[in-house]
Specification:
Elements (H helix, E strand, L loop, with lengths): L2 H12 L9 H10 L6 H15 L10 H14 L7
Helix pairs in contact: 2-3
Bound molecules: calcium ion (CA).
Protein name: EF-hand-containing protein
Organism: Dioscorea alata (Purple yam)
Length: 85
């Protein structure tokens, strides 16, 4: 998966209710789908931590483009996701 594909996946698939925001709950489910070997609790913690750290405008979700870009960088650095470009 490339970064662009990841971004598309995050905005079109992970955002389940299509409100333009990735909530902690949605990110939690996404983490489990990424195939990371996190248990439920670890995935929940990671989702919580990521939103806490990356939610720059403090609305409780990853929403604006810049936050999504940060999330992609975070996934790469913290979760070891490998992108193809
Ligand atoms: Ca936000």
């Amino acid at each position: 998966m490339s970064r662009e594909e990841c971004k598309k996946w995050l905005t079109e698939t992970v955002d389940l209710n299509r409100d333009g925001k990735i909530s902690r709950r949605e990110l939690h489910q996404a983490i489990q789908k990424l195939g990371l070997r996190f248990g439920w609790v670890k995935a929940w913690y990671e989702a919580w931590h990521a939103v806490k750290k990356l939610d720059i405008n403090k609305n409780g979700a990853i929403d604006v483009d810049s936050e999504i870009d940060l999330l992609i960088k975070y996934a790469e650095k913290e979760w070891g996701i490998k992108f193809t470009n």
